[in-house]
């Protein structure tokens, strides 16, 4: 078990700075952290060196442009950037593009609840600790599944990761958002 | 923005399919059906986000691979270029979620009669499966059919029932190759469904097998 940290992760804070202030320095710091990891992910998926860097570029540009939609009560920076990178990757390689779910709002509520964002961040840390605590063979299977090398049905559905609590957190954040949107739409 | 939910969704996507969507491992037809269901279903939206959190955790723990020295400068130089922004996904209509509008290319469905008042609009046909909209008049049955692979059927208007249960707007039925089912539309409103397969369909009664390549169903 990791010790409880009472501040939001550095990466999520950087992404909020990009979202709210179009902060280039924060974006550069995010790039320095995620570009080499995204490249590693794409290379593991079988992509060549140059092509992987091409997709990293497009994915990071999408991070910059889509940052206004980032809601830290529903995703940590790592989860959100994982999604954005997958979407860009498929957009680039499939003629039909990536079908993505409708956004709930044009932009997240101006002041998402800081306690909720922190709680989600703590769950994210626990999830990562759980991943690192898996027996090596099982951990490798989980990694291969999320890196796109194996299908999840091939690894017998259960990934070995405790996703229930993080799901419940996000579900609560969605309910709250739905509620706020309903209030906004009242005449 | 997505329309308000009007129906309590009881039929959801299986966990491995959401995880495969998150990891970019589903074919186009299934990806549209998954994204369309998630547009309507907050339960699956939260489950998908949990898989993306797991994907994010894997991403964080990967040994980083150094990128070219000038990659960051190249990206920073393009931040103000509006052409570098990814395309905006289309907005939903009152019936069709955004991912279905994208598959329709923003145009109304081009309905073709399948007989008995049933109509279809083919949106995609490829090696990785097919995607179409089905229009079923009230009380009418879609002929008994099996399929080679899996089939996802998402209700977008009205409702249907078959041997496995009742499906209203937002509900998704996941059928594997062993299920021979006869969906029947509820009385009242015509039923409009999005149907995705990961293999070509084989209809039993409605269209002779020989005609299948012509109708591309």
Automatic annotation (TrEMBL), chain A:
SUPFAM superfamilies named in the record: Sigma2 domain of RNA polymerase sigma factors, Sigma3 and sigma4 domains of RNA polymerase sigma factors
GO biological-process terms attached to the record: DNA-templated transcription initiation
UniProt keyword annotations, A-Z: DNA-binding, Sigma factor, Transcription, Transcription regulation
Residue ranges annotated for the RNA polymerase sigma-70 region domain, each copy included: 30-98
Pfam families xrefs: Sigma70_r2 (PF04542), Sigma70_r4_2 (PF08281)
Domain called RNA polymerase sigma factor 70 region 4 type: residue spans: 125-177
InterPro entries the UniProt entry points to: RNA_pol_sigma-70-like (IPR039425), RNA_pol_sigma-70_dom (IPR014284), RNA_pol_sigma70_ECF_CS (IPR000838), RNA_pol_sigma70_r2 (IPR007627), RNA_pol_sigma70_r4_t2 (IPR013249), RNA_pol_sigma_r2 (IPR013325), RNA_pol_sigma_r3/r4-like (IPR013324), WH-like_DNA-bd_sf (IPR036388)
Tree of life domain: Bacteria
UniProt keyword Transport present: no
Gene Ontology molecular-function annotations: DNA binding; sigma factor activity
Keyword Transferase carried by entry: no
PROSITE patterns: SIGMA70_ECF (PS01063)
Homology family: Belongs to the sigma-70 factor family. ECF subfamily.
Name of the protein in its database record: RNA polymerase sigma factor
From TrEMBL, chain B:
Pfam families found in the cross-reference section: Cupin_7
Domain ChrR-like cupin: 110-194
InterPro entries found in the cross-reference section: Anti-sigma_ChrR, Anti_sigma_zinc_sf, ChrR-like_cupin_dom, RmlC-like_jellyroll, RmlC_Cupin_sf
The protein, known as: Putative transcriptional regulator
Organism (species): Jhaorihella thermophila
